[in-house]
Amino acid sequence: MEKTMDKIVNLCKGRGFVYPGSDIYGGFANTWDYGPLGVELENNIKKAWWKRFVQESENSFGVDAGILMNPTVWDASGHTQNFSDPKMDCKNCKNRFRADNLIEEHSKGKVSAEAMTNEQMEAYIDEHHINCPVCGKHDFTPIRQFKLMFETSRGTIDNAKDVVYLRPETCQGEYVNFLNVARTARAKVPFSIAQIGKSFRNEITPGNFLFRTIEFEQMELQTFCKDSEAIDIYNQNKLNALQFAKDIGLNEKRLRFHDHEKLAHYAKCACDIQYQFPIGWEELNGIHHRGTWDLSRHQEFSGKSMVYTDPITNEKFLPTVVEYSIGVGRLALATLCEAYDEETLENGETRIVMHLNPAIAPYKVAVLPLQKNLNDKAKEVLRMLNKHFMCSYDEAGSIGKRYRRQDEIGTPFCVTIDFDSLEDETVTIRDRDTMEQKRLKIKELVPYIYSKVEF
Ligand code: GAP
User: Fold this and answer.
1) Are 204 and 57 members of one domain?
2) 45: CATH
3) What is the mean pLDDT of residues 351-375?
4) How many whole angstroms from 235 Cα to the centroid of ligand 1?
5) Ligand 1 centroid vs 144 CA: distance in angstroms?
6) pLDDT in tens, 29-88
7) What pLDDT, on the 0 to 100 scale, is given for residue 157?
8) Is residue 377 in contact with ligand 1, taking CB distance under 6 Å?
9) End-to-end alpha-carbon separation of the chain, Å?
10) Which domain CATH number covers 383?
11) What digits encode the pLDDT tens for the residues 130-171?
12) 213 pocket-lining for ligand 1 (C-beta < 6 Å)
């Protein structure tokens, strides 16, 4: 079975995971709207991440900072000066490309442009006669840096507008609140601040469905520690991030570490976890040892001390930050790619089945009355189950067709109500993956399903 991005996109659009943004207006490039199934999938992924990295982690606290921040935040973070990509325009067809992507795509991932200067990239593109992927001509403008932050303006009167930025990452909201959290949560270093929220980037080459979009959600965890502890925390973060990716349902065979060759000047080390998407090995998440850069810059630009005082030793220091950052949509895409399967059944038919981890599956259970005159009993079972789980209810078509519909959207359990259910208060429960069926008492359903869908 060939697993292509087209198949995943078609299933997502057709079944209500994801729709093109502003669809009735012909769409709006590289924006996507999550439908009824997509929003459940995303919420379940965020819940699982929060449980792992906030609820079950000692000394970890959540925040939800504003998308719009004081613009000086972005001077301090370096974004207003440096957050840009090397762009080239094709003079013939006027399309715009990232020079580093042109090189990496041309060499089929064998050459990394990560450590190249703009001059080296231009020379490489000329020497290897890399052509425009759209019109095939080799006639590019010189490389120029393209700013990635979206600007908007704030002002109560039209002629007094101040530029403000849509945040390109969530972590600055965690840095600026470092001392607030330390004080109010009585948090002692090392401790972490987590946040889940929207970020915006004016990407030159967005694409590949949810992989790179201009608006996306990030789940970011910043650990504030002594510099001497940072390497151990960084290494532990790599393992924790890998374990989370596996636990959410990604196969270990399709996950690998990729250490960065080119580091930001303040970073001691940085590593991505890559996933083998149908488009190839690509970054899933990042883990960064950021030194004291973030807090020292905010201290310098705000004029407020960001120094932490150890309550026991009275030692005063600026903490080092270790970061773990992952995109919700990118992770959702990886889980969808991993889960997609086409199976040939014993009777020769094929079924499309999404083997999603039950903890993140949009619906946990579908309630299916065998015949319409069993609806009352089925609705009674539905009302019992939907107090606990997201449920689907389907009374249309043959039972086989109804199973297929649930397989395609990854529902781990189907509960069928038949005439025996009226007599003995039992139902048939069918497992999505094994297709095995067994009888259970109605009153056993809730604890049974809980035991299978917990993260
Ligand atoms: N605070 C650090 C930071 O933002 P990053 O490597 O630029 O680091 C972290 O982004 C993660 O956010 C990526 O690994 C990816 O999962 C996700 N991400 C970044 N840009 C994205 C985009 N344009 N569309 C979707 N997800 C994106």
Assistant:
1) yes
2) 3.30.930.10
3) 97
4) 20
5) 22
6) 889 999 999 999 999 999 999 999 999 999 999 999 999 999 999 999 999 998 888 999
7) 64
8) no
9) 29
10) 3.40.50.800
11) 999 999 999 999 999 988 999 998 876 666 568 999 999 999
12) yes
Residue 166 maps to a domain:
no
For ligand 1, the distance from its centroid to the CA atom of residue 2, given in whole angstroms, is 28
Residue-number span of the structural domain to which 225 is assigned: 5-67+171-335
Q: Is the link from the previous residue into 133 a cis peptide, with omega within 30 of 0?
A: no
Q: Is 167 in the pocket of ligand 1 (CB under 6 A)?
A: no
Distances from the Cα of 75 to the Cαs of 69, 165, 202, 297, 381, in angstroms? 11, 11, 18, 9, 57
**Tokens representing 439?**
């009888």
Q: Distance, CA 172 to ligand 1 centroid (Å)?
A: 14
- Of ligand 1's listed atoms, the one at least distance from the Cα of 169 is 4
Specify the pLDDT at position 109. Answer: 82
Residue 2, classed as helix, strand or coil, is coil
- State the closest ligand 1 atom to the C-alpha of 220, by its place in the atom list counted from 1: 1
Tokens representing residue 371 in the block: 């015949």
- Among protein residues, the one whose CA lies closest to atom 14 of ligand 1: 285
Residue in 199, 200, 288 to alter for ligand 1 test, most ligand atoms within 8 A of Cβ:
199
Q: What would the two tokens of residue 247 be?
A: 């636990």
Cβ atoms of 304 and 249 closer than 8 Å: no
Give the count of alpha carbons within 13 A of 351, CB side only: 21
Mutate to test the pocket of ligand 1, among 290, 294, 324, 330 (most ligand atoms within 8 A of CB): 330
Distance 432 CA to ligand 1 centre (A): 33
Helix (H, G, I), strand (E, B) or coil at 105: helix
Q: Is the dihedral of CA 76, 82, 84, 85 positive or negative?
A: negative
Using alpha carbons only, give the angle 327, 47, 192 rounded to the nearest 5 degrees.
70
Task: Tell me which of 335, 352, 386 is where a domain ends.
Answer: 335
Burial 186-210 (b: 16+ CB within 10 A, else e): ebebbbbbbbbbebbbbbbbbebbb
Which atom of ligand 1 lies at the shortest distance from residue 206's CA? Answer: 23
Distance CA 445, CA 367 (A): 12
Q: Work out whether strand 60-62 and strand 191-200 pair parallel, antiparallel, or are unpaired.
A: parallel
Q: What is the atom index within ligand 1 of the atom nearest the CA of 283?
A: 14
Residue 282 sits in the same domain as residue 413:
no
Pocket test for ligand 1, best of 85, 169, 237 (most atoms within 8 A of CB): 169
Q: Bridge-partner residues for 340, per DSSP?
A: 354
Take atom 5 of ligand 1 and give the residue whose Cα is closest.
286
Assess contact for 291 and 275: CB atoms under 8 A.
no
Measure CA 248 to chain center: 12
